[in-house]
Amino acid sequence: MIVFDLQCGDSGDIFEAWFRSGADYDEQVAGGLVRCPVCQSSKVAKAPMAPRVPAKSLGEGASLARLAEIQSAILKDSEWVGDDFASEALSMHLGETESRAVHGNASAADAKALIDEGVPIAPLLLPVLPPNQVN
After folding, report:
1. How far apart, in Å, are the Cα atoms of 103 and each of 9, 54, 81, 94, 109?
2. Exposed/middle/buried for residue 44 (C-beta within 10 Å: 0-12, 13-18, 19+)
3. Is the pTM of this model over 0.90?
4. Which of 34, 41, 63, 92 is deepest in the core (most CB within 10 A)?
5. Where are the domains of the chain?
């Protein structure tokens, strides 16, 4: 199937019509079978139209896999601190321990408290298993 934007030569109206092929369109127009839906004139021709190119997409599964790869690369040099994330992040922020990249678990209340304290944190987009649970 092919779709064309057509324009009426009498009214100037533009409308869309579907055909089996370009040759089918030519035959129907030559036979006076294609008519303007507004004024019923058979004086129609193809209107200029932008090509319909489908969007290139990797699909949701591929996008999620790519996101997982990126997150994994970011966490490669980060230390898993588990449930101690909030205390470790605050300790580094206050200069009590050496600053380093860490990731782990925090409750919503702990995350809010860290943000209120000015600790630069960000949630991970995908869940992370503790290193001892990865097979």
Report:
1. 67, 40, 6, 17, 17
2. buried
3. no
4. 34
5. 2-46, 67-130
Instruction: Report in angstroms the alpha-carbon separations of 46 from 8, 14, 17, 23, 25.
Output: 9, 9, 10, 13, 10
Judge whether 118 and 97 are in contact, CB under 8 Å.
no
Evaluate whether 124 touches 111 at the Cβ level (below 8 Å).
no
Residues 6+ away with beta carbon under 8 Å from 135: none
Alpha-helical (H) ranges within the chain are 22-30, 59-75, 85-93, 108-117
Instruction: Flag the least confident range among 13-17, 25-29, 48-52, 123-127.
Output: 48-52
Contact status, residue 29 vs residue 36, Cβ threshold 8 Å: no
